[in-house]
Design goal:
The complex is a heterodimer. By secondary structure, chain A is α/β, with parallel strands linked by helices. Chain A has six helices and six strands; from the N terminus they run αβαββααβαββα. In chain A, the strands form two sheets. In chain A, strands 1-2-3 form a three-stranded mixed beta sheet. The radius of gyration of chain A is 15 Å and the shape is globular. The mean pLDDT of chain A is 95. Chain B has seven helices and seven strands; from the N terminus they run ααββαββααβαββα. The mean pLDDT of chain B is 90. The chains are: A alpha/beta, B alpha/beta. At the A-B interface, α2, α3, α5 and α6 of A face α1, α3, α4, α6 and α7 of B. Chain A: Pfam families: CBS.
């Protein structure tokens, strides 16, 4: 089984100058843990729930005053659509990540994938 | 500068108990991790408290534990008991900790969520980076 078989193709993005208060509302609205940070149509990193919790709230900063560029995680966490989910799980584990951004062989961003997608596979009995 | 001070004060006044989810979903130690995965998706949670035969908490199992264990070891999720992959002992924090302290703690320990205790040492709920994000989204911090 490949990453492309379990990934989500609906990628939500934000910009470097977006405010943390706005991206937090965006993530909450869609019930997601991560937005891909895009600069001039190129993915440059991600902003996650943990970035907001630790680098904004944990440092006593005002979410309205902090921009994505101040606290996002870079470089981009890349996995290829054709990678096996075993390789994917090993990469997540080795880097202590929950989600990664999926690219095709032409280096085009095609989705996002994470531990929830693997959990679904387990719950549905599709991974034996 | 006044605005920044305001933010710090909001984050100090806001306590874990104000943003946590009350109550924690449980699973018996002898259930399979497939069942745990089903429960997590149904209840929309990423952690279950593992209890023994007398309903006493003995550990926790997370979405990450299940995902990594099953795929990396190529095991059948129906054959692995929750007790085999659970983490113990369980780390907890006090419900009166401030949101700022909680954020620092998440950063230092690389935690995504923690069980919450009240002043009597009783389990009161669970708090996660999702709860923190919601508090920011709703202008509580």
């Amino acid at each position: 089984m490949r990453v492309k078989d379990i990934m989500s193709k609906d990628v939500k993005t934000c910009k470097l100058d977006d405010k943390i208060s706005d991206v937090s509302r965006e993530m909450t609205k869609y019930g997601i843990s991560m937005l891909v940070v895009v600069e001039k149509d190129t993915p440059v990193g991600v902003i996650t729930k943990s970035d907001v919790a630790t680098r904004v709230v944990g440092e006593g900063k005002e979410p309205n005053d902090v921009k994505v560029r101040d606290v996002y995680s870079a470089p981009i966490r890349k996995i290829y659509a054709m990678s096996t989910i075993e390789l994917f799980a090993n990469k997540l584990h080795a880097r202590n990540l929950r989600n990664m951004v999926v690219f095709d062989e032409d280096e085009k961003m095609v989705g996002v994938c994470g531990t929830t997608d693997i959990l679904k596979l387990v719950a549905e009995g599709k991974y034996v | 500068m006044t605005e920044k001070k305001g933010a710090v004060i909001k984050g100090i006044i806001l306590k874990v108990k104000d943003i946590m989810t009350k109550g924690v979903k449980t699973i018996a130690y002898n259930k399979s991790i497939k069942e745990a995965a089903e429960n997590m998706l149904k209840e929309k949670v990423s952690l279950l408290l593992v209890v023994d035969g007398s309903n006493k908490p003995i550990g926790v199992v997370t979405r990450k534990d299940i995902a990594f264990r099953v795929i990396r070891k190529s095991e059948s999720p129906e054959d692995v008991m929750v007790a085999v992959i659970m983490s113990a002992p369980v780390s907890t924090i006090n419900e009166n900790l401030s949101a700022v302290e909680l954020g620092k703690f998440f950063g230092e320990k690389k935690y995504k969520r923690l069980l919450v205790e009240n002043d009597n040492g009783e389990l009161a709920g669970i708090v996660s980076t999702t709860d923190m994000l919601k508090a920011v989204a709703n202008n509580k911090i």
